[in-house]
Amino acid sequence: MASKRSRINDVLLAEGLRWRTPETWFGARVDPEFAHKRGAWKHSPLPPAQSAVMCLDPMGPGAAKRYPGQQLVGAGPAAEPPPPAPRATQELDEGRRGKGDIFGAFCPATGEALPTDSLGRTIHNWVDCLGHVEGWGPAESERLYAIVDNLHVHRATDVLLFCLQHPRWEFVFQPKYAADLNRIEPWWKTLRSLALKGRRFETWAEVVKAVEEATGYWNNHRHPYIWGRRRRHRPRRKLASRRCQKQHRLAGCTT
After folding, report:
1. 189-197 contacts at long range (C-beta below 8 A, 24 or more positions apart)
2. pTM of the predicted model, to two decimals?
3. What is the pLDDT of residues 73-124, one digit of tens each?
4. Domain 5-66+95-251 falls in which CATH fold?
């Protein structure tokens, strides 16, 4: 049964819901509650008691094509003199052979992730993704804070109706120019590296399978995402002044 938008707004107002325009990062009237939550998330990955924090966002349009990356090549036998290194080449690709979208949910406190595939980025696809996240999220949590950006799909009427059906959900819209508050953004880079980098796909189903296998590997070796933590395998850089570096270079000079 078709309903006018004004009628839907009357129903939402009767249930105590209303539209809210998110404030920008540099706005004069910043939401103090959101600022408090932002500070708590930035210094600790632990969510409030009896609740969970989920970062939701689409990875972006994907396609069955060849993704650039590094590949292992066989080393030839030793020869004197050694042959010149071959020139880096890339196999020709005739184009895309299928396309779709990947939605994802990421829990910063545990590092666990859930991707869902879709053939589009419509409101229906987004609400379907929220349904998967509802079944995947911790059942013991009384409150689920979903961090999303200000895409018009995330603020659709169907999303408000989803909140009526699932009252424990609360959407927290990140301010503009503050994509770093959504921790799924750096995780997308990890997923692309595990699933897509250096591979060629013939169909969209192969892309979905690669994403599922990479996510399974990540969940088996997951770790929490903490603000300001250094990468585990990156050594600490030694600080040296430019003058010391210049003296070190001139020390071996004989002219």
Report:
1. 190/218, 191/59, 191/104, 191/113, 191/115, 191/215, 191/218, 192/59, 192/67, 194/218, 196/62, 196/67, 196/69, 197/67, 197/68, 197/69, 197/70
2. 0.66
3. 555 565 566 666 666 566 667 767 888 899 999 998 888 999 999 888 889 9
4. Nucleotidyltransferase; domain 5 (3.30.420)
